[in-house]
Amino acid sequence: MQVYSPAKGKSFSVGAGALTRKGEPMIERALISVYDKTGLEALVEALDGYGVEIISSGGTARRIRETGYERLVEVSSYTGHPESPGGLVKTLHPRVHGGILLDRSRPDHRKWMEENGVEPIDLVVCNLYPFEKVVTGGAGLETAADNIDIGGPTLTRSAAKAALLYDRVCVVTDPAQYHEVVETLKKNKGELTAELRRRYARAAFKRTAAYDSAIVNYLEDNT
Known about the structure:
The protein is an alpha/beta fold. Helix content is 48%, strand content 12%.
């Protein structure tokens, strides 16, 4: 397996809770993992215009690759671990969540990141397996359980927490948000706003709360 190796010679400067590459946009790296791929091409096109590296896997990576995106890195290449059978374990890895959760402006966090090959992730785009839709038709327990997303909610919560802690990472959980993200990037020359990051973090926690509630409601009625 070819393992991702971060490019050398990058020049970084630490700002108010964020780290940017001099002369380049704040969003340098995005992780995209979506079940619903509606509108993905428009978002990817916008990110391409700002030279953003995208980490992705599975069907999402295939869709992005079809657009001709050149700065695409497979999750398995980045982490150095192959995707598990059935795609059950892909993004649950310290190099992924370390890049989201750690504060690169803190020397101890930055040192750990550098020692462990963890690259900062500035944007997380993630929507979840359609559990609610699957169980609406009266799915059995095995089918319902198979559609319980684990990695997606974990990514979502990690990114939302980082947005609140450091005003750095932005989490996008709904294709309906893509248009606002694209327009904000254009307006701010490749950057997003603190107001948007915090608003989207709130939306992210609402989404995972509703998702967990749907699972609990199903289990109460079917187990």
